[in-house]
């Protein structure tokens, strides 16, 4: 026995050591990321030079020699940006031609949207609350918003959609586009993978038809051609037609994104769900679709962002979204040369919303990450 | 010509001493003259197999012999083209209702576990009881916890499958199948995707399940398991049942030369 004991060795794991000093701390970080090789060092120096050349003039234009206060073009005396213009025309950029006394309705719609969506960014809000707010945003909210904005009910004066404009119109177009395209796109994706030939054919035709034409021609058709086919006297709203066109177009895109996700679900998942007795709809809604949607969150949000930005195309059928509003305001002879300020403002508005969507999707991906995949 | 020994006696079940249990007279699975093709490829050829209630069957055979396809025909993950498959008195046809009824009674465990990665272990287990059997959540969760205890991983209930080892995942998959209170369990190579250290923990659970009297059909190459647990070993090759016999008989005195070749090959390792 003693002889065996002397032969066998006791295994003790080595203690964990700190990483070598060259890889930690600020100096270590800089060495690894900025100066790790000669090309890398050259790139770092070049970037620093570009920042030095480009950033100070921009700051000077936008802030240091810009004019912020005043109420007309006369206030813009500096060399820099004339932000007075944005301040003075802000209401037009936000509400379009929506009549002044009724703008509280638009504000209410904005505030409700913010109340429903902003908590989604904060993990400390209880998950249940966030879920209910999400459900509200997708179901009751669109109805409420439509009634408030349109009016004609409950004593609210009716406001024609031709008066809608600016940021409000941009948000209406993109919100409806998003809320319709995801579910419709999902149904189309499921239909395209269906075992039933008729359903599959219909879905393939729908998707390929809408995807094959540019959005501009969809909008043209909706505004110019559709009325030709409708009987006289039937004249439904231009905005509504644009909304339908945008929703259908993006549903077709969304369908292919979601289908990509469904394609990525291993066959074993379908089989396990079937073996447990889950039928098609239960297996889809409980097992495969949640995984597929999670897989393609980046693609879905990418589509949302593209949709949001492409709402500017409604300009060509005579609807004034925020870009349209800015464009019509900068040609006002009462103001000097304010095109750059106008476009920078419009770009910033778009950027804020698109960046918000991107951040939200990244947070969602982190939250839904449930351990490493094999 | 097909080789079918089944029509005679469902095996010399004489060595019931190993794990005491009773085999009922009623058939749980009755497969008669079943054929299946993939396109023009004849995968299953005149399969005849009867599994009685309480019986434990081990199916073995070389790769590609149609073992998986055969047991997948029992819960209609694959469709057979001719012949009949009757499970617990219900014949499998196109009828969706009958397929659903059978799937509620038959649990299945897969080689690659196939747990749902977006749900926790507990949610995996209660999904089907709640949505298919319409059990109240509380009751389903209590049952799931007691089954997770039976497979010795109650402490993992709140984790996601991706955070567990292969052996733990496979035990969850077994618990998930058992949550439906199945009358029959199908295993398709449950240990062949596992590291050697984890095979035993899964086999232990399966032995324990056998002791409880569950009717089981296992595709496996774990011959030790076959020897201690199986009532009958079914050997398949080229889509046919070549031979079926009690394990003592099967291992010591195989009738077919194909079986002998197969045994000599796997016992070499
Ligand atoms: N979906 C399919 N389409 C066409 N051929 C298939 C399909 N699935 C399996 N096969 C073929 O059918 C035969 C039987 O396959 P099966 O998976 O049942 O074999 P197995 O005995 O389980 O093998 P293994 O031990 O490798 O799992 C194989 O030759 C396989 O290539
Ligand atoms: Mg197999």
Automatic annotation (TrEMBL), chain A:
Keywords: Cell membrane, Membrane, Transmembrane, Transmembrane helix, Transport. The chain crosses the membrane at residues 49-69, 104-125, 132-159, 165-190, 202-230, 283-307, 313-331, 343-360. It is found in: Cell inner membrane; Cell membrane. Gene3D superfamilies: MetI-like. Belongs to the binding-protein-dependent transport system permease family. HisMQ subfamily. It comes from the Bacteria. Residues 167-356 form the ABC transmembrane type-1 domain. GO terms for biological process: amino acid transport. This is Amino acid ABC transporter permease. GO terms for molecular function: transmembrane transporter activity. The keyword Transmembrane applies. Its main location: membrane. GO terms for cellular component: ATP-binding cassette (ABC) transporter complex.
């Amino acid at each position: 026995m003693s002889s065996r004991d002397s032969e066998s060795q006791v295994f003790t794991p080595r203690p964990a050591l700190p990483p070598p000093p060259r890889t930690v701390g600020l100096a270590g970080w800089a060495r690894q990321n900025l100066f790790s090789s000669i090309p890398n060092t050259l790139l770092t120096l070049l970037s620093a030079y570009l920042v030095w050349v480009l950033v100070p003039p921009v700051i000077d234009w936008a802030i240091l020699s810009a004019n912020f206060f005043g109420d007309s073009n006369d206030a813009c005396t500096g060399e820099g940006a004339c932000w007075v213009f944005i301040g003075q025309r802000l209401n037009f950029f936000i509400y379009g031609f929506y009549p002044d006394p009724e703008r509280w309705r638009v504000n209410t719609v904005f505030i409700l949207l913010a109340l429903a969506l902003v908590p989604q960014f904060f993990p400390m809000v209880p998950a249940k609350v966030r879920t209910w707010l999400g459900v509200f945003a997708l179901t009751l909210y669109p109805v409420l918003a439509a009634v408030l904005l349109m009016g004609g009910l409950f004593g609210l004066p009716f406001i024609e959609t031709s008066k809608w404009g600016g940021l409000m119109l941009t948000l209406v177009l993109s919100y409806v586009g998003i809320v319709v395209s995801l579910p419709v796109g999902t149904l189309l994706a499921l239909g395209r993978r269906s075992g039933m030939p008729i359903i599959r054919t219909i879905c393939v035709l729908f998707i390929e038809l809408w995807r094959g034409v540019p959005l501009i021609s969809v909008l043209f058709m909706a505004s110019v051609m559709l009325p030709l086919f409708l009987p006289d006297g039937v004249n439904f709203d231009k905005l509504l037609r644009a909304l339908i066109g945008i929703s259908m177009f993006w549903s077709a895109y969304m369908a292919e994104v979601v289908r990509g996700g469904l394609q990525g679900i291993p066959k074993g998942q379908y089989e396990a769900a079937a073996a447990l007795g889950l039928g098609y709809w239960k297996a889809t809604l409980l097992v495969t679709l949640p995984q597929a949607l999670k897989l393609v969150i980046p693609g879905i949000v990418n589509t949302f962002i593209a949709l949001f930005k492409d709402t500017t195309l409604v300009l060509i059928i005579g609807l004034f979204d925020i870009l349209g509003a800015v464009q019509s305001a900068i040609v006002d002879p009462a103001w000097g040369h304010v095109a750059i300020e106008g476009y920078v403002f419009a770009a910033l508005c778009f950027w804020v919303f698109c960046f918000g969507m991107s951040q939200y999707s990244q947070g969602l991906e982190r939250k839904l990450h449930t351990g490493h995949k094999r | 010509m097909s080789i079918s020994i089944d029509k005679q006696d469902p095996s010399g079940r004489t060595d019931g001493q190993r794990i005491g249990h009773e085999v009922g007279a009623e058939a749980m699975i009755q497969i008669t003259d079943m054929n299946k093709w993939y396109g023009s490829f004849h995968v299953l050829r005149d399969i005849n197999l009867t599994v009685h209630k309480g019986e434990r069957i081990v199916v073995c055979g070389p790769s590609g012999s149609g073992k998986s396809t055969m047991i997948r025909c029992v819960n209609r993950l694959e469709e057979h083209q001719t012949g009949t498959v009757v499970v617990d008195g219900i014949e499998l046809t196109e009828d969706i209702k009958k397929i659903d009824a059978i799937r509620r009674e038959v649990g299945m465990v897969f080689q690659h576990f196939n747990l749902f990665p977006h749900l926790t272990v507990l949610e995996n287990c209660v999904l089907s009881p709640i949505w298919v059997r319409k059990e109240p959540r509380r009751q389903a969760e209590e049952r799931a916890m007691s089954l997770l205890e039976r497979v010795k991983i109650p402490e993992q209930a709140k984790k996601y499958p991706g955070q567990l080892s292969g052996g733990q995942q496979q035990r969850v998959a077994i618990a998930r199948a058992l949550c439906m209170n199945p009358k029959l369990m199908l295993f398709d190579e449950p240990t062949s995707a596992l590291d050697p250290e984890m095979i035993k923990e899964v086999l232990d659970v399966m032995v324990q399940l056998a002791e409880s009297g569950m009717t089981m059909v296992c595709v496996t190459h774990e011959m030790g398991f076959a020897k201690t647990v199986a009532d009958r070993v079914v050997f398949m090759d080229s889509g046919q049942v070549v031979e079926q016999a009690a394990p003592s008989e099967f291992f010591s005195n195989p009738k077919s030369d194909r079986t002998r070749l197969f045994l000599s090959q796997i016992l070499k390792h």
